[in-house]
Amino acid sequence: MWFLWALLAAISAALVVVLTKAGLKNVDSSLAFAIQSILILTITWSVVMYQGNFAALKEIDKQAWIYLLSAGLLTTLSTLFSYKALSMGPASYVVTIERTSLVIAILLSVIFLKEKITWQLIVGAGVMVAGAVLIALSDRPE
Predict the structure, then answer these.
(1) Is 90 exposed, middle or buried (0-12, 13-18, 19+ CB in 10 A)?
(2) What is the 3-state secondary structure (H, E, C) of 78-142?
(3) How far apart are CA 42 and CA 40, in angstroms?
(4) Which of 3, 6, 88, 118 has minimal Cβ neighbours within 10 Å of its Cβ?
């Protein structure tokens, strides 16, 4: 079941890139993200309330709060950086470089979360980096 959710996330993320790039035509990138954040906040808290998980807030321990708030800060920065890049460059190139975060996430997962490294992970990460480099170094439209 996790695969289905991951696939839906990938499709949604791809649509976000294209729609955001189209929406940034005459809009400041930070303002665009602020507008989208209102919707993000509304939908996610609605889901929490619908699922009846609001009371679980008080059960979250201090360490989890630190991790979650840090991730929230980094999500905000990542999105602001991504939107700025999208406002300046072609979406297909920006997203290629931005998605090298997958390789970084794999490395950090192995180092900090002690996840098992396999030859498939190594080869897959290598292919991702090679693809990103190939696209980044190709002739790009301005």
Answers:
(1) middle
(2) HHHHHHHHHHHCCHHHHHHHHCCHHHHHHHHHHHHCCCCCCHHHHHHHHHHHHHHHHHHHCCCCC
(3) 6
(4) 3
Q: Rounded to two decimals, what is the model's pTM?
A: 0.84
Percentage of residues of the chain with pLDDT beyond 90: 83
Q: Which residues contact 68 (CB under 8 A, 6 or more apart)?
A: 60
- Asked whether the CA dihedral 54, 56, 61, 66 is positive or negative, the reply is negative
**pLDDT by residue (tens digit) across 57-71?**
999 999 999 999 999
Please tell me the predicted confidence (pLDDT) of residue 136.
81
Q: How crowded is the C-beta side of 74, counted as CA atoms within 13 Å?
A: 7
pLDDT at 74: 96
Q: Which amino acid is at 23?
A: G
Distances (CA, A) of 84 to 26, 40, 71, 87, 134: 13, 19, 20, 5, 22
Residue 129 neighbours by CB under 8 Å, 6+ apart: 100, 103
Q: Which amino acid is at 40?
A: I
